[in-house]
Amino acid sequence: MHLPALIIDKIVAKIPIIQGGMATRVSTSRLAAAVANEGGIGIIAATAMSPDELIQEIRTARKLSSGIIGVNVLFAVRDFALLVKTALNEGIDLVISGAGVARDMYKWGRETDTPIVPIVSTAKLASMVEKMGASAVVVEGKEAGGHLGTDRRVRDIVPEVRKAVDIPVIAAGGIINGADIREAFTWGANGVQMGTRFAASEESNVTDEFKQMYLKAKKEDVILIKSPVGLPGRGLKSTLTEKLLRGEDLSPAKCNACLKKCSKNFCIMDALNSAQQGSIEDGLVFCGEQVERIKEILPVKKIFENLKAELAALPDLPEQKEAT
After folding, report:
1. Engineered SS bond to 121: which of 100, 127, 150, 162, CB 3.0-4.6 Å?
2. Omega before 122 cis (within 30°)?
């Protein structure tokens, strides 16, 4: 199968793959630059970063790559506006955001001529954000890792969104290999977002303990927890998640007020940071539903080589044959 370019306004990605923006500090400059160097869109996860840290990450990514670099900022964080504006002022190529609707960010995007790409899980929301000024939408199904906005499969949502909007549609959730990418295009997607596969890369900014947890994961290890953000979150079993599922009170002694609204059943930033730094049992390891299919930790270059080889062995879609 021949992969078409992904065009989002003025941005043209030779390979229609967006690397998921995984917080906290899983997706940093090294990973984003490596993906951008392969022709995809590399994403820095800005959530929980300070403005100064984000500036440094963007500038480092620029030194490492001349490709497309974007940021992902969770709408639920209190510093959302500050982080988005910081990235825009640094000349970031695009902004991705989920876990809520931020009407103002489309205005900010127009002011800097920067594409804004929200994460949606329904055709209704996709249509609404297109009218607000979205340049594309990431359509996330229940198979995705991290915070989820639906219990429906991505394969069922993408065709509905495709009919509802004229902007590019990027499928996200459970996409691991070339066959998954081809299938997403049969649903009407213009590209895919891959998080879990790139979290299990050499350039991913997590410890070996975190990555080994992915390799050892079995289907029954993947669970849902109630996040303080107000959405379910998909991750791997740990001592922390077992306590949460038992209903234990893990309210933090001190709240840093990092979220706009927080149920305070536990501190998600502390949990994500602990996992990223290697304290697996005390942390929260987000992952996609299909994590068990990942068998190797590979450099980003090799991941792209494998994807291209897998796709080359598959037939083109009928409409692609006509286009060529």
Report:
1. 150
2. no
Domain ranges within the chain, ordered by starting residue = 6-205+294-317, 208-291
Count of positions (residues) in the chain: 324
CB atoms inside a 10 Å sphere around CB 246: 7
What is the CATH number that goes with domain 6-205+294-317? 3.20.20.70
> First vs last Cα of the chain: how many Å apart?
12
Check: pTM over 0.90? Answer yes or no: yes
Compute the distance between CA of residue 201 and CA of residue 312 in angstroms, rounded to an integer. Answer: 22
Query: In whole angstroms, what is the distance from residue 216 CA to residue 232 CA?
Result: 23
Tokens of 168: 């590019």
CB atoms within 10 A of CB 196: 27
Residues 6+ apart with CB under 8 A from 305: none
pLDDT digits (tens, 9 = 90+) for 146-190: 989 999 999 999 999 999 999 999 999 999 999 999 999 999 999
